[in-house]
Structure formats: structure tokens, C-alpha cells
Design brief:
The complex is a heterodimer of chains A (279) and B (253).
Chain A lengths: L1 H29 L3 E3 L2 E3 L5 H42 L4 H12 L3 H12 L4 H8 L14 H25 L3 H9 L4 H12 L1 H16 L3 H7 L6 H11 L3 H33 L1
Antiparallel strand pairs in A: 1-2
Chain B lengths: L1 H23 L17 H8 L1 H33 L3 H16 L2 H15 L6 H25 L4 H8 L4 H30 L2 H6 L6 H10 L5 H24 L4
Helix pairs in contact in B: 1-11, 2-11, 3-6, 3-8, 3-10, 4-6, 6-8, 7-8, 8-11, 10-11
Classes of the chains: A mainly alpha (279), B mainly alpha (253).
Chain lengths: 279, 253
């Protein structure tokens, strides 16, 4: 039985190893290589990492900030929507999730493009504002800003937050909620003392996935960020393609990845400590 | 009443921007904005005359089909293997195999490029895109198939084995017909993810275009209104595929 299990796993593991484990290991090694006259040379130097730490720390922090904002907003909004679908929509809850799930796998680029046409100088929002007479000149700060990047990221990532939170809320038995209200808890206390403690894990996974995907994105800031909404991913791309400096690109990607992991670990631990103290 | 408004607001936020793109793909005005001009199918007709669109379309079809077939095979086998392992081991293996989905696609994409160009010197191209897509879709197949097999009645398989069927016969004649619709559903999800992926495809394709890199090219250059049309077409296919997949794999009876 055991041996059969391992045999069945072989093809998927082969793909994983050849297209992920080996490439990622090599990419990490490349961050210690050097570039001489546009030629990549195996080496062991910290030049690329030095460059990441000295030149890109600010951008890394800013990228983490955008990821945090997107993660927090998605988790909050995702909770509200999942809560509404679970407790307030009656039999329609699953239908609402179906609608959410369907938007999950479709239209990454389309969604970003849609925001470009809504927020642009001659976009829908400005046209509406001008037609209604609220403004006389188009508002140019709507697009090419941090705000635009965060709005589009939240729009694209919200389904990733809604689904795990809804799955967690579905496992909350109605009886615990009813018991709380029978015992005189108001809606707020039921929410904070009965429901949220039961879905903490789901909330954290929702936050983690939105945070990671937001911090690692480069397409959204490229199209909607302009010069003020630049993120680290764009420089990974720049180092890789334009500058042909693979070690730098590699150090930037792993630097961002490690920074994200560190932040998630710290937040996870802090959350656990707060939860323990409450008990 | 308030909750109804909340739900309506969320649906508007989630679906509104996408609906706009669809709506304006039928309007004669080049810009998104009201009035949208006369109803027209010109943008779609223009696409059909665009040779760049044709080649991107066929590349995407090949990539999505190959991804769907191979990822469904590797993922289904892996799901069957995982169910034979101790639950704690299975969970660890599943978490490992899912890592490619959790990392930023940018990192996965450049890692693949580094290995194929520098590591083994094979270069890039459509086969590399397919491999990358199998990598990011097989975890979804594993999850979907495992969920189905978990509520699968093993006694029929045991009965078949008792009656002298080989393992393969028992699988082909008893298990497979019962999980077939789940497998088709999983394959459609893979195709949808493959069609939707832009980042891995744009790095690993080398030359040429998939539909998503074709859209990207148009997005970057001018404000080309045919984007609305091609985006709508792409959207209809990916959303249609995942909708169909859900019907087949999960919400069946």
C-alpha cells in the first residue's frame, strides 16, 4: 500500500522538482553569482544582497506596506461579505460563494484594465464627476497612485479572502450562535466572543494569501501605480530583463520573499499571544 | 434590509468593473464612458481579422488543453497516492506540492527561466509554458479529487477485487466512471487557470503570444478598444469553464 502511494505521487513530484524545487534552488544560488560585462558567472559574492539591503530597503518596506494594506482590507471586507453570506443570506449563501468562486479564476488582466478605464483621466469616474458638475477638471490623482494600486489589488484579491473565511464560518455551528443570544449576548459580543474565535485560522489564511499575492505583484503597480506607486516586483522585472542583472533580480525576489515570511511569522505569533492572553 | 444592501454593494464591487468591460465591448465609442455609442460587433469582427489574435488564440488553446490533460493525470494520481499515506504525512506532502501556488508567480516564473535558459540550456517556448502551468494547476486537481475520493465508497472496489478484477480493472471499471465528472471538472479548472495566467506565460513563452500576453501587448501600447472585446472573450471562456467545472465536480446533486 505504502509503496503504491509513493508510485502514484511520482509524476506530480517529478513536475514539482523539475519545474519548481530545482529552479528555485538555482535561482537562490544565482543571487550569489556575479555579472561581468553582461555575462553571468558562478561565484560566491554578496554584491547582489548588499545592493538589495542598501538600495532597496525603503522600497521593500513600502511594498510590504501595500501588501499589508491589501491584506487587511481584503480580510475585513471578506469577513463582512462571508458573514453576510453565512448568516444573513439564508439559502442564497452558497450561490453567493459560487459567484465569488467563478470570478477567482478569470480575468486577472481584465480586472486591472477595468480599473484603468474607471480611474483614468478620461475614465468613467472622471466623466461622471465632470458631467455631474462636481469638478470642472478631471482628477488626475485617481490613477497612477498608491490608492489606485491598492483598490485594484483589493478587487482582484477579495475572492481569495472571502472563500477561506466563508469555509471557516460554515463550520461555526448555528447552535453556538443561538446559545450566545439565548444567554443574553448582544450581536457585537456574539461576533467577537463566539464567532471570531472560531474562525481565527480562516481569517489568518485569508490575510496571508492576500498579503503574499499583493506584495509579490508587479502588473498592477506597472499599470496603475505610475511613479508614486512603484513596487519591488517591478524592479525584479527590471533587473532581470532590462539590466540583465540576474543576481540582483534573484536577491530582490528572495529578499522580498524572506521579508514577507518574517512579517507573517511575527504577525502569526503576535496573534497567538493575544489569543492566549484573552483566554 | 441593511444586509441586503451590503450584499448588493459587494456584488457591485466584485462584478461591476468586469461588467463594464463586457458592456463597452459592444459599444461603438473607443473610450469607456457614457454614452457608449451605438451597439456594434465591430470590435469582435476586427479581432477575427487580426492574425496576431489567431496565433495567440491557438497557442492558448494548445497550452490550456495540454495543461488540463497532464495536470489532471498527475494531480489525480497524486490524490490517490496521498490517500494511501498516513494523514499527517499526506498533509505535509500536499502543503509542499501547493507551494508553487502560494509564492508570487513572478518568482516561480523567473526561477523557471533561469533553470531552462542557464541551468540546462533548453531555452524557452510553449512546452515550458505548459510545464509551468501543470505545476501551478496540479495542486487544485489534488484538492478537488481528494475531496471526491474521501466520500467515495470503497466497498464497490473491494467487491470488484474479490471477484477477480485486477487493480487496474477495478480502477477503470469501478472507480473511474464514478469520479469521471469530477475529473472533467478539475480539468476545466486547470484550463481556466492556464488561460488566465499572464505572468508565467509572459516569461516562459520566449517568442509568440498566448491570449493573455496578447491582451497585455494591447494594454501597454495604445488605448485599443478591441481590448474590451478580447478581454470579454477571454472572460467568457475562463468564467464559463470554472462555472461548468463547479457544476460537474462539486455541486452535483
Amino acid at each position: 500500500m505504502k509503496r503504491a502511494g509513493i508510485m502514484f505521487l511520482a509524476p506530480a513530484t517529478l513536475v514539482f522538482t523539475a519545474v519548481f524545487a530545482l529552479p528555485v534552488a538555482l535561482l537562490f544560488a544565482v543571487s550569489f553569482w556575479s555579472v561581468k560585462s553582461f555575462r553571468l558567472q558562478p561565484d560566491f559574492t554578496f554584491t547582489a544582497w548588499q545592493r538589495f539591503i542598501t538600495q532597496y530597503w525603503e522600497l521593500t518596506l513600502y511594498t510590504l506596506f501595500v501588501g499589508l494594506m491589501a491584506g487587511i482590507i481584503c480580510t475585513l471586507l471578506g469577513f463582512v461579505f462571508a458573514y453576510a453570506a453565512r448568516f444573513k443570506a439564508g439559502a442564497h449563501g452558497d450561490t453567493l460563494m459560487l459567484a465569488t468562486l467563478i470570478t477567482l479564476f478569470g480575468g486577472y488582466l481584465v480586472k486591472i484594465y477595468a480599473w484603468k478605464s474607471i480611474l483614468g483621466a478620461d475614465g468613467l469616474l472622471n466623466q461622471t464627476l465632470m458631467a455631474s458638475g462636481l469638478v470642472t477638471e478631471p482628477l488626475t490623482f485617481l490613477i497612477y497612485s498608491r490608492g489606485a494600486v491598492i483598490v485594484a489589488l483589493v478587487h482582484f484579491l477579495l475572492p481569495f479572502a472571502i472563500l477561506p473565511i466563508y469555509a471557516a464560518l460554515r463550520n461555526v455551528p448555528d447552535s453556538t450562535v443561538e446559545a450566545a443570544s439565548d444567554l443574553g449576548a448582544n450581536a457585537f459580543n456574539t461576533l467577537t466572543l463566539v464567532i471570531i474565535p472560531q474562525v481565527r485560522q480562516g481569517l489568518f489564511s485569508a490575510f496571508a494569501i492576500c498579503f503574499l499575492l499583493a506584495a509579490g505583484d508587479y502588473v498592477t503597480p506597472m499599470l496603475l501605480g505610475g511613479t508614486s506607486g512603484v513596487m519591488l516586483g517591478q524592479f525584479v522585472l527590471l533587473e532581470f530583463s532590462t539590466n540583465f542583472n540576474w543576481p540582483a533580480g534573484s536577491a530582490l525576489s528572495f529578499g522580498l520573499l524572506f521579508a514577507c515570511m518574517l512579517l507573517l511569522a511575527v504577525l502569526g505569533l503576535a496573534g497567538q499571544m493575544i489569543a492566549r492572553r484573552k483566554r | 434590509m441593511i444586509w441586503r444592501a451590503v450584499i448588493a454593494f459587494f456584488l457591485l464591487f466584485l462584478l461591476g468593473p468586469i461588467a463594464l468591460v463586457v458592456l463597452f465591448s459592444f459599444g461603438s465609442n473607443a473610450l469607456i464612458g457614457f454614452p457608449m455609442g451605438a451597439l456594434t460587433l465591430d470590435w469582435y469582427a476586427g479581432l477575427l481579422r487580426d492574425t496576431g489574435f489567431y496565433s495567440a488564440f491557438w497557442t492558448s488553446v494548445v497550452v490550456a488543453l495540454a495543461t488540463a490533460v497532464f495536470a489532471t493525470i498527475t494531480g489525480t494520481l497524486a490524490a490517490m497516492g496521498l490517500l494511501r499515506l498516513a494523514p499527517s504525512v499526506a498533509r505535509a506532502v500536499l502543503a509542499t506540492l501547493s507551494m508553487p501556488v502560494l509564492l508570487p508567480p513572478l518568482v516561480v516564473a523567473i526561477a523557471i527561466v533561469v533553470l531552462f535558459v542557464r541551468g540546462i540550456g533548453l531555452g524557452l517556448g510553449v512546452p515550458v509554458v505548459i510545464l509551468g502551468h501543470i505545476l501551478i494547476t496540479q495542486p487544485f486537481v489534488i484538492l478537488i479529487v481528494m475531496a471526491r475520493l474521501a466520500r467515495f465508497d470503497q466497498s464497490a472496489v473491494e467487491a470488484a477485487r474479490d471477484l477477480g478484477a485486477s487493480r487496474w480493472q477495478a480502477f477503470r471499471l469501478v472507480t473511474l466512471p464514478q469520479i469521471a465528472s469530477t475529473l472533467v471538472g478539475a480539468a476545466l479548472v486547470c484550463a481556466a487557470i492556464s488561460l488566465d495566467d499572464f505572468i508565467i506565460a509572459s516569461f516562459t513563452i520566449g517568442g509568440g503570444n498566448t491570449l493573455s500576453t496578447f491582451v497585455w501587448g494591447k494594454m501597454r501600447t495604445t488605448l485599443d478598444p478591441s481590448i474590451n472585446a478580447i478581454a470579454t472573450a477571454l472572460l467568457v471562456v475562463t468564467v464559463g469553464l470554472s462555472g461548468l467545472a463547479l457544476r460537474l465536480s462539486r455541486y452535483r446533486s
